[in-house]
Automatic annotation (TrEMBL):
This is Tryptophan synthase beta chain. Keywords: Amino-acid biosynthesis, Aromatic amino acid biosynthesis, Lyase, Pyridoxal phosphate, Tryptophan biosynthesis. NCBIfam families: trpB (TIGR00263). GO terms for molecular function: tryptophan synthase activity. The keyword Lyase applies. The beta subunit is responsible for the synthesis of L-tryptophan from indole and L-serine. The keyword Amino-acid biosynthesis applies. The modification N6-(pyridoxal phosphate)lysine is found at residue 92. Residues 58-383 form the Tryptophan synthase beta chain-like PALP domain. It comes from the Bacteria. Coiled coil: none annotated. It catalyses: (1S,2R)-1-C-(indol-3-yl)glycerol 3-phosphate + L-serine = D-glyceraldehyde 3-phosphate + L-tryptophan + H2O.
């Protein structure tokens, strides 16, 4: 049987993954793979990484019993893994510090990346400032308009923000743009992908850097409840916060695992959702084979989500694999359900969640009432929602 966790030598999880890059990128990406394979085994690298997670990010993040939310929904007890409390307000700092440390180890001077909601850009600019690296962030112009405060943050942190005007002017186009600049300047540059996507080794590497989330959560729930949770729920854009939580539980068969993707406004209309796991077909995008929202001729669909961190027309290959083998289940929730869940957490717990994380909350809110009071759900609260309040106010007509 193949492992649920580790890719094979070529970076495949079952039928998905691999490294599909143009010949001139084969060497630079293979260099990253070789450097990471060494760093992964190096206790000094790991110790340096863990020290930053503790003293800079503020880990471990709490596992919080949401009593108000639990009471309101009636049913299973809901715990929140508080990645929103990390420095910079989301889980992404976990992998950005890992990538920054690896870039330094490889002697690179500059980090380059794409960003959607701006969360990866802010987290990477933060890591770059901390580690003394230059930083260049590519961002779709629609996202720039929607996420102005994050653009200001990146610039304050010393990053150069490049506005991408091609295609749908969102995350996918920013990835293309960042890749093409990297291709022309890889000697001094490290390409810091923002999720468990892209060519091997990125899906495995980003997952490893995020897996601290689930290792902590496992220890915390065992300490608090003396047993494993019944259900895990996390939002899935590329899938890094989800795999961060899931990895430590993949081999625990009693734990049901749900990834929640953006159903947007209408699942039946192309361009009105980003439900890759539900409606995607096998294809190749951004250096990996995975499920892709695409036409029969391979043209990727435009995507939409109320949460711009989730509007990506593909998904990390390990998620496609976990779906194939039936280890994880993938569902979608709509923009409207997401807004409800966002407001519900604000009122019941005094926590303003990111719209991305509100997708996971919305599914937990569906599940909890169908479960017993002796059952446990752990939700990955991947980020805080301060970045979203202007957009939410507009949606609510305030
Ligand atoms: C970016 C982001 C996501 C989606 O990215 P994944 O790689 O799927 O985790 C989810 N939540 C927050 C808060 C984000 O910033």
């Amino acid at each position: 049987m193949t492992s649920l966790i580790d890719a094979d030598e070529a970076g495949f999880f079952g039928d998905h993954g691999g490294r599909f890059v143009p010949p001139h990128l084969e060497t630079p990406i293979a260099e990253v793979a070789a450097a990471y394979a060494e760093a992964r085994q190096d206790p000094q690298f790991q110790a340096e990484y863990e020290a930053l997670l503790a003293d800079y990010v503020g880990r471990p993040s709490p596992l919080f019993l949401a009593e108000g939310l639990t009471r309101h929904l009636g049913g299973a007890r809901i715990y929140l893994k508080r990645e929103d409390l990390n420095h910079t307000g989301a889980h992404k700092i976990n992998h950005c510090l890992g990538e920054g440390l690896l870039a330094k180890r490889m002697g690179k001077k500059k980090l380059i990346a794409e960003t959607g909601a701006g969360q990866h850009g802010v987290a990477l600019a933060t890591a770059a400032a901390l580690l003394g690296l230059e930083c260049e962030i590519h961002m779709g112009s629609i996202d720039i308009a929607k996420q102005r405060p994050n653009v200001v943050r990146m610039e304050l942190l010393g990053a150069k923000v490049v506005s991408v005007e091609s295609g749908g002017r969102c995350l996918k186009d920013a990835v293309d743009s960042a890749f093409s600049v990297f291709a022309s300047d890889y000697h001094d540059t490290f390409f810091a992908i923002g999720s468990v996507v892209g060519p091997h080794p990125y899906p495995s590497m980003i997952r490893d850097f995020q897996s601290i989330v689930g290792r902590e959560a496992r220890g915390q729930i065992l300490a608090k409840e003396g047993r494993l949770p019944d259900v895990l729920v996390a939002s899935v854009g590329g899938g890094s916060n989800a795999l961060g939580l899931f990895t430590a539980f993949l081999e625990d068969e009693s734990v049901r695992i749900f990834g929640v993707e953006p159903g947007g406004k209408d699942l039946d209309v192309v361009g009105e959702h980003a439900a890759t796991m539900t409606l995607g077909t096998p294809g190749t995008l951004h250096g990996m084979r995975t499920l892709v929202l695409q036409d029969t001729d391979g043209e990727t669909w435009p995507v939409h989500s109320i949460a711009s961190g989730l509007d990506y027309p593909a998904v990390g290959p390990q998620h496609a694999f976990l779906k194939d083998v039936g280890r994880a289940e993938y569902v979608s929730v709509s923009d409207a359900e997401t807004l409800e869940a966002f407001q519900l957490l604000c009122r019941t717990e005094g926590i303003i969640p990111a719209l991305e994380s509100s997708h996971a909350l919305a599914h937990a809110a569906r599940l909890a009432p169908t479960m017993g009071a002796d059952e446990i759900i752990v939700v990955n609260l991947s980020g805080r929602g301060d970045k979203d309040i202007d957009y939410v106010a507009e949606k609510l007509g305030r």
